[in-house]
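Quick start: read one record
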Amino acid sequence: MVDHLSKNPSKSRILIVEDDKSIRETFREALVAEGYAVEVCKTGDEAQTRIFSQFETSKKLDLVVLDLMLPNLNGIELCRRVRKNNIKTPILIVSAKDSESDRVLGLEVGADDYLIKPFGLNELIARCRAILRRSETNHDQTQDSSQVLSFKNISLYKQEYRVTKNNKEINLAPKEYKIMELFLQNPKRVWSRDQLLERIWGIDYVGDSKTVDVHIRWIREKIEEDASAPSYIKTVRGFGYKFG
C-alpha cells in the first residue's frame, strides 16, 4: 500500500522505498521539512506498481530513494525492471552494502547515485537536491533542442532520447546517454575524468572518479565492434577520453 503524504503538485515528488519503519519515517520527515512532496512504500512490489503507474496520474515521480534489501522484490531487481521499461525517473540507492562491487552493480542496473548507510540526513538531502537539479537541467536541455547528432553510423535523437547504430537502437542508461550526447556534440575533444564528472554528474557529485571509467566501459560494450580495441571512444593516456 502506498502512503500519499502530500497533495501539492508544484513540489518535487520523492518516493521512499524502505521496509524499516523507523528509517522510512526519519527520511520522510527530513524531506518533508525541506519542502518536498513525499510518498513511501514498504516493499519492492508496491514501489514497482507506483513507479510504473505514475504516468497514468498527475503525480509523476521526480526521484526514487531506494533501499536494496526489500521484501518480495529487492531493490536491484526493481531498478533493473524500471530501466528495462525505459522509465527515466532518477533513482538514489541507499544501502548498507558498501563494497565496490555492490556500488558498481547499483550503477550498472541504472541508479543515478549510491549512498552508503549510515549517513547523515544532511547528506541525504544534499544528494536528493543535486539529483533533482541535474534532472531538471537535463530535461530543459532536451526540451530546448530537436537536433539529431550523428557521427559515422551512430545517431543521437535528442527529442526522442535515443541512440542508434546502423539504424538499430542501442539501449543506454541515462548517464550513458548523456555521455554519448556530450561526445557527439564535441567530437575529437579530449575530456578528463573530472570534466566528465562535472558535466554529467554535476558539481555537487560526491563519489569516486572511477565511475567514469565504469560507464565508458559499458558504453564501449554497446557501441564498439570490439570493446577491447575501441574505434569510437578512445583513451588518451594521462588525460582522459575522446570520441572519434
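The radius of gyration is 18 Å.
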